[in-house]
Design brief:
The chain is an alpha+beta fold. It is 35% helix and 21% strand. The protein has a single domain, classed as Peroxisomal Thiolase, Chain A, domain 1 (3-Layer(aba) Sandwich). The protein starts with a helix and ends with a strand.
Length: 272
């Protein structure tokens, strides 16, 4: 095992991007998480990705809009170059609405699937559009671990930081499922978070995971605000909220994030 991984996984948070119901960006989310502003749940508004060429912009789905918005916000805040960053994309199920449209087409009389729908159906579509938009040619990992996807992505990104000694951009995201899929996967809206992680630069916080005690049976850290706790439970990517609150408050200490049942991810935050 690599010595850096055997000793500890550490990374500094250099930039944050957030977009979700009632959370327009990290500036607003930070104020809410600090208790300076009341959280009001409102439908997530996804911006038009002007950074994409016109043809790709027309084809952009909710997943593409969400990841570009959060990723670019985190990169700008960190003062990094998107084209040079390795990335980790993580989602509990990819593009639910696009999946619905393909299923609807297959259930119709002609069963023809739009080429755009087809190429947007792959789980690494967001990574591909990120490369088109930013010119990034660095390695990109794309994960899916159902409701454990945020913690799995964070762990993967921290491993990459430790092994490569280079910054990595983590992008976690989920979008809603229309009916009838919504009945079995009731994700109500879009939520995305991006963390620019660095081995040495970044003054927001230092994250650490002890490989010998990375997983615990302790329950995940909850949100004190009932509406934010409901959001955390409703959208898998929003399992990041306890970490975002700790980052907003600059609060050192331990956190437990949802991972696999009975095997939650434990991490420590400390000031840089």
């Amino acid at each position: 095992m690599n010595q850096a991984i055997r000793a500890a996984l550490t990374a500094r948070v250099a930039g944050i991007g957030v977009l979700g119901p009632g959370l327009a960006d990290w500036v607003q989310a930070r104020a809410i998480l600090r208790g300076e502003q009341t959280y009001v749940a409102q439908p997530c508004v996804l911006p038009v990705p002007q950074i994409l060429p016109p043809a790709e912009r027309r084809r952009a789905t909710a997943v593409i809009k969400l990841t570009l918005a959060t990723g670019l916000e985190a990169v700008a805040a960190a003062g990094l170059k998107a084209a040079e960053l390795a990335t980790v994309f993580t989602s509990s199920g990819g593009d639910g609405r696009n999946c619905h449209e393909i299923c609807a087409a297959l259930a119709s009389s002609d069963r023809l699937i739009s080429p755009t729908r087809f190429h947007n159906s792959v789980h690494n579509a967001a990574s591909g559009y990120w490369g088109i938009a930013t010119g990034a040619m660095a390695p990109s990992a794309v994960l899916c671990a159902f409701d454990a996807s945020f913690a799995a992505g964070l762990l993967e990104a921290m491993v990459q930081v430790a092994v490569t000694s280079a910054p990595v951009l983590l992008l976690a995201y989920d979008t809603d499922y229309p009916e009838p899929l919504h009945r079995v996967r009731p994700i109500p809206d879009s939520f995305g978070v991006a963390l620019a992680l660095s081995p040495t630069a970044g003054d927001l916080a230092r994250l650490a995971v002890d490989p010998a005690a990375a997983f615990t049976a302790e329950p995940a850290t909850r949100m004190d605000d009932a509406a934010l706790e409901a959001l955390r439970l409703a959208i898998p990517a929003a399992r990041a909220l306890p970490l975002l609150r700790a980052l907003a408050l600059g609060a050192p200490g331990g956190l437990v994030l949802d991972h696999l049942p009975g095997q939650q991810l434990a991490l420590e935050l400390s000031p840089c």
